[in-house]
């Protein structure tokens, strides 16, 4: 059976699942809800109810969102022909867990505390397995190139005590593993989306690095290879004002997303707006998949849409706690699926 | 030797008729099965999430099945024309048998391909009704466009068979 035929069932099921995603009306209800309790009540009417408990408090809603995302990943694993498509989404959580465990391990060596609570079950490697392997320094059986990356991280830490360098090595490994997974599928459009995601991450990093006053030489190691834009081209943006970035990237697909954000002089506003524009750009790259009844990109589109939905719900719930302006919250929300 | 050649000549006409009938049933039927299979995948997908859509899906996944019926119909007409269905056999010449066999080809070929493409269209329409069940009317019309060409092929096969003098 060809890949196209194998996805006939999966795409149809995804189409049927789309009706369960939050639409504009439901977001509006959530925005209009009376405080966080009212918002959680509305969430309780949806699929997210399976992660909510009776004594739900404002602090616990995050676990409900996490539980729903995990349930979605597991459900997709049961019917999507290529598991690698789901692993592309679970990889960042694996690498987040590795970072958390390594930092905890380093902290413990210097008398500090471990922070188990920041570990997430959303990764594809079980937390217990990962913990045992990292604590016992038995990396050889770890997937996604971690067997090579982890000894390099430990070595970097022992030589320099530089946690930023450890994080950089892990981020490099994450995007390299993503490219490897996407390449293994032999689907150019899936690979193209992963490359677009790397471009987004590089531009986000570049803006942060510019804020911290990094020059091109210092910033170069923090840009990841594998994107559609060469890191050298991106580094040439560093000395330029942000408003010139869109023009300089006009020849790339991502240029329009960068141009759509204006610098009003506040870095916080700029990074938040840019992150939204880049997330929407990643979503837009998958828009054409909706016209196909058997394209694997539909899996990416749904899972990305689900992640954005969780992000939007989290934004709204946090805003309820902080009593933020409703229009401001709406401005931060990602485009729905 | 002459007897063998004579016997072959007598039976070759009937063999060609049987070949044509077999092709029309075989190809059109295979195409239908293939098309229904494609539509079935989509139907199973939406019914996993929403079993209430079975009624809508059934209409759409039955559409590619018509080509198989057309093939069967043409095969019956061809065999009947050659007298292969009745008790009293009618001998057809080689040329008559060849003509009947060729008359079966339009529905065999067009039936095969239109059924597959209709199955793909039906699958797309099933995706449509998964989100917009109120659009079932339009969803049925889209794959029915492929049906037009199967009907043309059926008509041509029947007209050809009717025109052959036995």
CATH architectural grouping of chain B: Up-down Bundle
Instruction: Classify the fold: give the CATH topology of the largest domain in chain A.
Output: Topoisomerase I, Chain A, domain 4
Q: Which structural class do you get from the secondary structure elements of chain A?
A: mainly alpha
Helix/strand/pairing class of chain B, anyone?
mainly alpha
Largest β sheet strand count, sense and barrel closure of chain B: none
Q: List low-pLDDT spans of chain B.
A: none
Describe the fold and architecture.
The complex is a heterodimer of chains A (337) and B (166). Chain A is 65% helix and 0% strand. Chain A is an all-alpha fold and 337 residues long. Chain A has 3 domains: 1-81 and 296-337, ATP synthase (C/AC39) subunit, domain 3 (Topoisomerase I, Chain A, domain 4); 83-186, V-type ATP synthase subunit C fold, CATH 1.20.1690; 193-291. Chain A starts with a helix and ends in a 5-residue tail after the last helix. Chain B starts with a helix and ends with a helix. By secondary structure, chain B is mainly alpha-helical. Chain B has helices spanning 2-49, 54-62, 66-81, 94-103, 105-131, 136-163. Chains A and B meet through helix 1 of A and helix 1 and helix 5 of B.
């Amino acid at each position: 059976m060809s890949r196209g035929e194998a996805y006939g069932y999966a795409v149809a099921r995804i189409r049927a699942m789309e009706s369960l995603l939050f639409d504009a009306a439901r977001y509006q209800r959530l925005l209009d809800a009376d405080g966080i309790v009212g918002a959680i009540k509305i969430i309780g009417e949806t699929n997210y109810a399976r992660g909510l408990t009776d004594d739900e408090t404002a602090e616990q809603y995050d676990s409900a969102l996490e539980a729903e995302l995990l349930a979605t990943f597991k459900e997709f694993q049961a019917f999507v022909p290529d598991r690698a498509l789901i692993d592309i989404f679970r990889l960042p959580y694996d690498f987040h867990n590795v970072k958390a465990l390594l930092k905890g391990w380093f902290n413990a060596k210097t008398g500090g505390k471990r922070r188990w609570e920041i570990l997430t079950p959303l990764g594809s490697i079980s937390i217990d397995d990962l913990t045992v392997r990292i604590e016992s320094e038995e990396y050889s059986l770890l997937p996604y190139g971690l067997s090579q990356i982890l000894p390099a991280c430990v070595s970097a830490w022992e030589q320099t005590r530089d946690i930023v360098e450890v994080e950089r090595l892990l981020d490099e490994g994450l995007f390299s593993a993503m490219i490897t997974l996407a390449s293994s599928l032999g689907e150019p459009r899936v690979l193209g989306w992963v490359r677009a995601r790397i471009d987004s991450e590089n531009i986000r990093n570049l803006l942060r690095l510019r804020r911290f006053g990094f020059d091109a030489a210092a910033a170069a190691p923090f840009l990841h290879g594998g994107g559609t834009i060469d890191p050298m081209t991106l580094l040439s943006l560093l000395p330029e004002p942000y408003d010139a970035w869109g023009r300089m990237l006009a020849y790339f697909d991502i240029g329009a997303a960068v141009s759509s954000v204006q610098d009003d002089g506040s870095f916080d506003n700029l990074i938040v707006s840019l992150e939204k524009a880049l997330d929407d750009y990643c979503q837009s790259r998958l828009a054409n998949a909706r016209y196909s009844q058997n394209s694997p990109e539909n899996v990416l589109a749904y899972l990305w849409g689900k992640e954005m939905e969780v992000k939007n719900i989290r934004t709204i719930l946090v805003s309820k706690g902080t009593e933020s302006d409703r229009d401001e919250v709406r401005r931060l929300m990602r485009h729905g699926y | 030797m002459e007897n063998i050649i004579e016997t072959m000549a007598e039976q070759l006409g009937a063999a060609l008729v049987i070949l044509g009938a077999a092709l029309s049933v075989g190809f059109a039927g295979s195409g239908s099965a293939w098309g229904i299979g494609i539509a079935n995948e989509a139907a199973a997908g939406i019914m996993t999430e929403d079993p209430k859509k079975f009624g809508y899906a059934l209409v759409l996944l039955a559409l590619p099945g018509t080509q198989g019926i057309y093939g069967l119909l043409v095969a019956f007409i061809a065999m009947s024309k050659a007298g292969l269905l009745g008790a009293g056999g009618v001998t057809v010449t080689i040329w008559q048998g060849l003509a009947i066999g060729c008359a079966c080809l339009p529905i065999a070929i067009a039936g095969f391909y239109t059924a597959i493409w209709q199955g793909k269209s039906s699958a797309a329409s099933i995706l449509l009704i998964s989100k917009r069940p109120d659009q079932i009317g339009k969803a049925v019309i889209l794959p029915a466009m492929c049906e037009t060409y199967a009907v043309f092929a059926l008509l041509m096969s029947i007209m050809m068979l009717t025109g052959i003098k036995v």
